[in-house]
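## tool: complex_structure
## caller: assistant
## args:
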Amino acid sequence: MIIVRKSPYELLKWLDSKPRIQEVRTLAKKLGVRLKRTMKKRDIIKKLRTALKERLKAEEARSSATSVLESSAGNAVREYPKQPRLPESYNKDKLVLLPVNPNWIYAYWDFSRKTRESVQKKAGNVRFVIRLHDVTYVIFNGFNAHRSFEADVDLDWGNYYFQVPNPNADYLCQLGYIENGRFVPLLASNVVRTPPISPSDKKEEIWIKISKGKRYSKTSEGMVEKPVERAVGSSQWPNVGPVVEASGGGAFIWRMVREGRSGGTL
Amino acid sequence: MKSRSKGHLVLVLHAHLPYVRHPEFEEFMEERWFFEAVTETYIPLIMVFERLQKDGIDFKLTMSLTPPLLEMFASPDLQKKYERHMEKLIELADREVKRTREENPRVHELALYYSRHFREILDTYRRYGKNLTNGFLKFQESGNLEIITCNATHAFLPLLSRHKSVVKSQIEVSVQSHENRLKKRPKGIWLAECGYYPGVDKFLSHFRLEYFFVDSHGLWYADHQPRYGVYRPVVTPEGVFVFARDPESSEEVWSAQVGYPGDSRYREFYRDVGFDRELEYIRPYIDRSGERINTGIKYHRITSKGIDLSKKDYYALADAIAAVKEHAADFARKKERQIDRLYKLFDGVEPVIVAPFDAELFGHWWYEGPLFLEELFRVLSQRTSVIPSTPSEILATYDEYQMLTPAASTWGANGYFEVWLNGSNDWIYRHYDEMAERMEEVVQLFHTPTPLEERCLNQMLRELFLAISSDWAFIMTTGTTVEYAKSRVITHVLRFHQLYGQLKSGRIDPDYLKELEWQDAIFPWLDFRTFKV
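## result:
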């Protein structure tokens, strides 16, 4: 057993799971509970329970003093859970895109109470969808994307991975629903650019002479030596899991082909 | 006519560990990461530097010492714990000396070696006042070592770029931390995980950082093709210089198939007395829970790949040293050939070969790694075509640079962001995002804070910084000690929110705050105003 700052609550539960005597002794030591050499496991557990309950009380007193957390909107009040758990929602309308690699983009979302209520009213009558737009070099007005893609979503998923057609392209997404054949957006995201995956085809090079601060350009003939680029692949078709249904293309392999990073650490 | 080709070799070691310090526990398993790295990597490197200097070998090495590592070096409680750890280890080595006398002469010889070696390590540690920063500083002053910084808590910036406040403060604090601990302004920066995105250079330029590094494809896929590939530094339109990683060098050293560390004569990482000895005997030297761990006393060599661990042969230092010499000579020869080829190809333009590695791979993983570096510098001092150089020396030599914007890239598996964003760790980003927004909000709100509010704001930024270390996402991906990484993220996020709630409701609990300032004590001088953009 590794005791990594478990809460008193979790430790109390753990004591019910028939731990071994050495483990119980270790916990006592880490908690600073004094034991006699002759004590039986049952007695040690009893003593630990008392100590943990005291701790729990102290923690509850502390968190109840500060249990009112206001969101930046200033209207939401949430109780802090007794057992340390991250909030499931921050009650803000949010749709965020993050690039994963040249072929994949990650989206996650959250809702304000107001949006969540209005969404709940629609549930069952409409089809919830997420739309991804290629907005490379355009200011998106809802209709001018180069291409748009749509997927059905369950809003409770909270996130979605898109496989996208173009590296080095700008994407934006919208979350909404289809009602009477019309798309009604609820949230819009930030714009992200996928990383490039090919050498540039520009025909010029820019150089600078630092001492003079002077820039000049030359015709580009590409790299003097063409590099051997890294292939991404595997001897087997990668098991990409249920989230990813698309086939073909894409460098994103869930099971890392190469182990670790530059050779791994720790 | 004899070839007069020449070029530069820039060796870079990135030394980093996440801030793992638990003063509330007498012993804490994950603190051993730090102890092991000190014993097997950082001190052996300093000892290598000492020997090279003594022999008049003018070596040139670049090292990033990350701010969390500098903080841990300076932490009095970790210093005390490390000494205690080493005293225990020496005690174990001495017991091994006695025990192996009857067992086997080869093992006994190794036990004697460990007993001597650990004492030497501890002596060196004390000689530098228990703070290894002093050791590295010594070689910065002698001009052999160029120490650079790394963004404050090793946050993975490409996925945080939405929040200029986060990126800016990570960069500003990287400079402050370096100045604070190393008494000098850093010239260059290692971006955590070699994680670069177009735009980050604006912040580097703002804080007068002159150069950074990218992986090879960062230049290959730049907005203009780099004429000399990765073999010459370039400059971004913001005026920051960029060095790119040479794929050949890292492959030669680390390739799973032909890389040096896999040689049969080198020490086997996975055989350790912590696992080999009977429990009753080894118990005082492993984790208190009785969980077996690596102690650092290892008697076996790799022997051959794929062979069962139990069938490994004994390690012999002399054979390992012979391997080191062969490998150093081989690497030097390869660099010479590479430079010769590129020099001709580039029509007399000197190639610059950049070889960055995780420092902890030398010594911790590859036990003989520090000796390899030592031997390499000895070999190179006899040759003229491969010039070991630091980035600053190179930038001082040349006047003309190609200007381009590198492509977003990292040195992680497959070269992009998926190590730090995938199904195992994607849940962390919504919390990072919320922390950043809340921090931005309170930084605006509390422009004239009371002293208590100010402490609370500073601590909030510490919690945010600790939560966003790239190490946690990385660990979740690799699948080892995942629970610890998760608990660290959760702990810091919850502490942050707790402080936020207290601050905004005007009910700051001074005891709670004090406890967090003690437990999460990174950057005692931190000023939350760095978060203002």
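## assistant note: Residues 41-64 of chain A form the longest helix (24 residues). The longest strand of chain A covers residues 170-179. Handing back to user.
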